[in-house]
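Hi everyone, sorry if this is the wrong subforum. Our group has a chain we'd like a structural model of before ordering constructs, and none of us has done structure prediction before. Sequence below.
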Amino acid sequence: MLRFLSDNRLSSQSFVLPLLLGVLASLSSGCGNLFAATDATTSHASVTSHDLSLAESANHSAVAFPPNTFEADGQQVISWLKAKEFDKVEALLAEAIRTQRQTRGGWFYADSVLDQVFKRSKSKKLDQSLLLPLNEWIAQSPESSLAHVARANFYYAQAWEARGARFSGLTSKSKKEKYQQLLLLSIQDGQKALELDQENPLGLLHWLTLGRNAGMNREEYETTFDTTIALVPNFTQAYYEKSQYLDRRWRGENLEERLDFTRQIAADAPKGSVLPLLLAWTHEAYCTYYPNKREYLNRPEVWADIESSYTRVLNEFPEAGLYALQFAEMAEKAGRESAAKKYFQLAMEREPNHPRVLKNMSKFGY
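Answer:
Right subforum, don't worry. Here is the predicted structure as C-alpha cells:
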C-alpha cells in the first residue's frame, strides 16, 4: 500500500532516515530545518481559533461532556491509561479506525480522542504522568502499532510544550535543543508504529505532522499524503495538515500554494464534509500578513470564500456549534457586526454550555 515503503518496510530508501538525520544534524548545529517556520504551530494547534482540537475541544478537562463523544472518550482514555487498562484503549481506537468514525464536526474520531488525551494546544497542559503508563503499555504489547503511535503523540506534544509558542528567533537555544531531542523520540516511535502497521491512519497522520516539522521534501510528503487519503478519503486532519505544510511559514514557497490547495479542496469536497472550512481558515491565517486585516477580509472574493465555506458546513453539520462561533469571530474581525451577532446566537443555540461559547458571551453582548 505505501509506495514509500519497500518490502523491507522502513528501509533507508524511505524518508525515515532523512528525517532522523535531519533532526540529528540540527541537534549538533542548534538550528536547521526544524525552525524554518516563523511561528510555533503545533500538530493541530495554532494561533487561530479553530485549531483548538480541530474546532471542537474545550480548554477545561474537568468539563463533563456527554457520553460517546470524543471529548468524553478522551477523558476515559486518560483514566484507562492510568489504571493500566490498555486493552480498552486499544479497542476504542481500533474500532474508531475500523469504522472511520467521524466526530460531530466531521473530523477523524480516533485522532480527536488522542488530541484530547495529549492536549496538543498551547492553551492546554500535557499530563506528564502519562509517559509511565505509555511505557508500560509498550512493554506489555511491543507489537502494538497503536501503543507506539500514542507515545509518539505524547513526545510530540511534550516537544512543543518544551519549546513554547514564541517565534523561532525569540526561542532560546536550550528550548530548541530540548524540542529537537523530544521530536527525535516522536520520530522513532512513529517509525515503529508504521513498521508494525503500514496502514495505521494515525501513524500516517503523525508522519505527515513530523514531515512538516522536520523538513520532509515535497515529493515524499505528497506520497505520504496520497497514501493516507487513499486509506481514509474523508480524513480532515490529513488535509488540514497538508494545508499547514503548504503555508509559507512552514514549507510553502509563496502565499498562493496553500490558498490554491484549499480552494480546490473546498470546490471538490463531497456533501457532509468539513473540508470547505480549510479555505476559510487559510484566509484567516493570511490576513495576518496584511497591515489592514479588516480590509483583506472584506475583499469581495475573500469574504465570499469565507461566507460560502461556513454557511455550507453549518448547514451540513447541525450539531457543530463551534463552527458558528468561529464564523462569528471572523465576522467580528471583519467589522460585520450583524453577522457576528447572528452566528454567535447560533453557537449559543447549538452548544449553550460549551466553555468557549460561555467565555465569549460578554464579547458579543450577552
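For your construct planning: The two ends are 53 Å apart (CA to CA). Residues 173-196 form the longest helix (24 residues).
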